[in-house]
């Protein structure tokens, strides 16, 4: 495999796409949003239970490519028990990582999310990686309408 | 095959002589848009270098030349689809505009509340949305001829759907997502028996086999230049004269009028009534060059090549473990939609791209087709006259690589 391909489809990405974590609707959720990438038809919903300022539980469901599923799965693990501000800061870092690459990004602070660094070499796939995050933001902001990557 | 040497054909297409990502380019996305032979590129350049001026206006030599080139292109299109009269050829931007034109002229004139527009389940969005919009404007109802698991139209149900309220049948000649070739001649016969006019979306047909609009008997036939090795921005609406003659204009502007006062406008005759504003002159010239190129190869030869390659590709893809071809119509054009295990088409496309192989992934602007087959998307390899068995072999190798990544 060429090196940029193996950067994109890292073991962790493939594993999360095949066995996504928190693939469920959170029972008694307080926040939810739907996301849609009209270009490829990827669809995703995020449900959360937010207590005070903290995301106590989060789940997602939907269909999409390996990148979008893995990104959503990793996201749910990363923002659980985080405050809104922390989740927002992660969004910013991940966005920079998938659009610009690892330079200038505090990769250590990203933990497992760092495996998404390969996406920046594939401009056509940035939206796949960021769909879940846009949906998370919409859910946190309490926007009922579906978000779109377009 | 006599008279058709694919290696020589490839030499006519400069874009194919390149490497991408360190590998020879394998272009399998011609159903999205085709590549252009040097003859088309040269014709456009020559037009701008020698003949460019506005048409139907000037008394000067350049305007004469450009008018001749533009009207000559109309005659070339007429010959290509065997229309009776060059006046039945309207230049538009593409298939999409051609269908919108019919919906907004014929449709607005003839449809009212409770009337019906009949389309099929395999249509491209370009042959759905203009009718949907027309229905919203007029209160008409959209009816859809269903499709079966092979991707063929359920003809036995079509008859019952042609009612006394049906004002038009709009159907694709070839499905862009499945490759299904529909029996447009038979459908036209049945529709006409009930007095229903027929529009055929021929965008995916004219590039693969000879089309004779008089033989089909349809009232309207739409296609795009860019899918048939011509430039983007130019397309054709053919309409039978007796259908076009009574229609109101589509857009207003220059060239579509005979006289204008502030009180009254007299509209021009067909086809100019439907060509408001300065048309895509160079586009028409390029389209005519594409047609001459196809004629030099012979559409029968092109059709034989495409069918031979389709058979080879179908067999080759079926040898890939876990691959399922979506769309198995008995009469099919050189389009292969497929699913590979449960790997998302986007991932398939990305990995193939790194091998220098261009395919289309997604819903192919035919979401109802995807909904019928209960898939969000497919991968689609589409073949054209410059594709070879080697291209198909490269695709198969690429798909094995995809399986390796996702094993």
Automatic annotation (TrEMBL), chain A:
Gene3D superfamilies: 3.90.1010.10. One of its GO terms (molecular function) is iron-sulfur cluster binding. InterPro entries: NIF_FeS_clus_asmbl_NifU_N. CDD domains: IscU_like (cd06664). One of its GO terms (biological process) is iron-sulfur cluster assembly. Residues 9-128 form the NIF system FeS cluster assembly NifU N-terminal domain. Coiled coil: none annotated. Pfam families: NifU_N. Belongs to the NifU family. This is SUF system NifU family Fe-S cluster assembly protein.
Automatic annotation (TrEMBL), chain B:
Its EC number is 2.8.1.7. PROSITE patterns: AA_TRANSFER_CLASS_5. Pfam families: Aminotran_5. It catalyses: (sulfur carrier)-H + L-cysteine = (sulfur carrier)-SH + L-alanine. Residues 26-395 form the Aminotransferase class V domain. One of its GO terms (biological process) is cysteine metabolic process. The keyword Nucleotidyltransferase does not apply. GO terms for molecular function: cysteine desulfurase activity; pyridoxal phosphate binding. Keywords: Pyridoxal phosphate, Transferase. Catalyzes the removal of elemental sulfur and selenium atoms from L-cysteine, L-cystine, L-selenocysteine, and L-selenocystine to produce L-alanine. PANTHER family: CYSTEINE DESULFURASE, CYSTEINE DESULFURASE 1, CHLOROPLASTIC. This is Cysteine desulfurase. It comes from Pyxidicoccus fallax.
